[in-house]
Amino acid sequence: MVEVKFYDTVNDELLKFAVIISQSNGKWVFCKHKERDTYEVPGGHREDGEDILETAKRELYEETGAITFDITPICIYSVTAPDNFDGMETFGKLFFSDIHTFEKELHSEIEKIAIMDELPINWTYPEIQPKLLEEARKRGFCPKKDEIKWLFFDVGSTLVDESKVYEDRMKRIADLSGLTYEQIYKYAMSFYKENKKGDLEVARQLGVKLPKWESQYERLYTDTKDCLKKLSRIYKIGVIANQSLGTSERLENLGVRKYIDLIIASAEEGVSKPDRRIFEIALERSCCKPENAVMIGDRIDNDIVPAKQLGMKTIWVKQGLGSLWNITDESEKADMEINNLSDVLKYL
Questions:
Q1: What is the mean pLDDT of residues 81-99?
Q2: What's 58's domain CATH number?
Q3: Mapped to the 3 state alphabet, what secondary structure does 86-151 carry?
């Protein structure tokens, strides 16, 4: 009997293999060995003195001809089998790769690569590799397309870059208080790192009125439009955001409204995040069950926690000031953390 286990960490010297679950343009990438009629996930042995990440990159190139790609570690796996290393538990590292370009000719024992819409039936290692894929999915990588139907996005610091607005606001607080911008910025950052609204706290502490939000300084992040365009071909796209009246028009002016199927904004609904009711409204109008929806946002308190409470999947985009949030409880942990919207395309 083959036993497969998973770990977050083990001693590096125990890692003997790298296996790379791979996709390209949303399709699976598998290898077919010259002497087999089955398909396998790319991977292989670690060479002496080789870093395990370099093993993964080398094996991916040798077995698929991948030239340009993104690669992300998932976890550690182990295999124990009677006919494998005398029944000893052996360890490897599991990776996920999104392949962008391939070399035209393969230079290994691999006969061909197969790019598939669906997973193969005839696996080379049927007792091992399907379990690796299942674990990757549990950890938020390459979910089944029919499991996720709706992607809901926050707006500020998720789709829209608000850094210039905050900069303007802090400069005006500095003018009102007689302090320098640098002093106000440092003061505000200290509050953000305490999971507080830094600009609001600074204004309150200094006894000045919080300056008006100057939305004319808002800009799309450079990858927002491309990300929404690609995702809208696969999923329904929604917005759940604390926004003033006219959210639809603003998104139209920014050139992304055409990719969005549903907008739920606090001003129109009369309820704001983190109140769970605004998420319930979005799920009801989209006719979507929580388990078939993903909430993508920059705020742990406003986006991640209430969405998790309802059973939605969650992705924390660590952009803007929300990236300074210090996670203090398991309830605050998103299913996945990414650094920008483009990273969403690697996993969804």
A1: 88
A2: 3.90.79.10
A3: HHCCEEEEEEEEEEEEECCCCCCCEEEEEEECCCCCCECCCCCHHHHHHHHHHCCCCCCCCCCCEE
Which residues pair with residue 212 across a beta bridge?
Answer: none
DSSP secondary structure of 189-235: HHHHTTTS-HHHHHHHHHT-PPPPP-GGG-EE-TTHHHHHHHHTTTS
For 327, the domain range is 150-161+219-347
Q: Which pLDDT tens digit goes with each residue over 19-47? A: 999 999 888 999 998 888 899 999 999 99
Q: Please count the CA atoms within 13 angstroms of the CA of 322 that sit on its side-chain side.
A: 26
Q: Based on the domain organization, do 233 and 308 belong to the same domain?
A: yes
Q: How many CB atoms lie within 10 A of CB 69?
A: 20
On whether both 182 and 115 belong to a single domain, the answer is no
Do 86 and 196 share a domain, yes or no?
A: no
With respect to residue 20, please indicate whether it lies within any of the assigned structural domains: yes
Beta carbons within 10 angstroms of residue 312's beta carbon: 25
Please indicate, yes or no, whether residues 118 and 35 belong to a single structural domain of this protein.
Answer: yes
Identify residue 137 by its one-letter amino acid code.
R
* CB of 160 closer than 8 Å to CB of 36: no
- Report which DSSP code applies to 254: T
Q: What integer is the mean pLDDT of 170-188?
A: 89
Among 87, 105, 138, where does a domain finish?
Answer: 138
What would the mean pLDDT of 293-305 be, rounded to a whole number? 96
Mean of per-residue pLDDT scores for the chain: 92
Residue 280: which CATH number?
3.40.50.1000
The pTM score is 0.63
DSSP, collapsed to helix, strand or coil, labels residue 52 as: helix
Report which of 286, 310, 300 is spatially closest to residue 332, judged by C-alpha positions.
300
Q: Measuring CA to CA, which residue among 279, 285, 289, 167 is closest to residue 217?
A: 167
